[in-house]
Predict the structure.
Amino acid sequence: MLTELKKVERQAISQAADLLAAGEVVAFPTETVYGLGADALNSAAVAKIFAAKGRPADNPLIVHLYQAEQAEALAYTNELFYTLAKAFWPGPLTLIVPKKDCVPAIVTAGLDSVALRVPAHPAARWLLQAGKMPLAAPSANSSGKPSPTLADHVYQDLQGKIPLILDGGAVNIGLESTVVSLVSSPPAILRPGKISYAELLPYLPNLLPPKALAAAEAPRSPGMKYTHYSPQGQVLLAAGGAVFLKAYRSLPKDKKLFIIATSQTAALLPQEAAPFVIAQTGDIQAYAHNIFAAFRSADAAGAELILTETVPVQNDDVSMAIMNRLNKAAGIGS
Ligand code: AMP
Ligand code: MG
């Protein structure tokens, strides 16, 4: 299959809408990462997402909506759902709610709940409006690869397997959405993301913090058991500054190394380390934005060992989401 890569504009959107109506899959940018979408109510179309990605069938998909009211047709909602929708949508928050029968089992991996999100990216919104259907859309990477933050990443992974990639440039956030379960009691953050525990707390006073959840994560959120954030090389983690320098010095020099560090740490390293400077030290938004691309660069360089600087974790910000992805990439707690 020929994979077309097209800039987001009227003709490309209408081609994408036609493909979706015909039961095909299309990759498109969202504010978190690129998604691979199909008509959420068409099982055969959704099956093509799993086939193109090589995604295990027990990893459920997020259904993307143009507006919150579309949830009525797909799920059992309540006042709390709409309060959260009003506060955070469009945006990087996914809500898990009980599903209605019309949502095919393939979308939810057989669960009786469904994940819903209204994305904020203009191209995603344009496509959802033009397509006039809810889109089941996981990240548009091959299963097992880091999530795609550029159209080119999608092309590298899915070339020849999907008909169209809408190129909207680099995504803004670079980490996947925060996933909150409204079917568990108390409500729980199943996957940390840009929208933090602290931001959610005023709406969900008994919300379980992501840390407390670590042990219970796997059974509640099936997909989280997969390390779908890993580059090919082995990821090693170290804090910045002197700790990082020490970790660097202890690496075996007969392996192909790839060093990911923030600016201040990078400045401490010897020249031959040639670090990939992911962000200015302390700029966690930039760090989040660049981490998946950094892992992809490591893969492209054929790295065997990838020493990656961690970020200091604060309970109420994106640092927790970054550490969640880094720990998974390093095979810690997954
Ligand atoms: P992705 O779009 O690739 O980031 O994957 C979506 C993730 O959302 C899955 O891996 C699950 O962790 C989570 N998810 C989707 N649907 C559900 C659900 N019904 N219950 C719990 N978690 C879900
Ligand atoms: Mg994914």
Q: What stands out?
A: The two ends are 35 Å apart (CA to CA). The pocket of magnesium ion (ligand 2) is lined by residues 138-139, 147, 228 (CB under 6 Å). The chain has two domains: 4-200, 234-329. DSSP finds 14 helices and 14 strands in the chain.
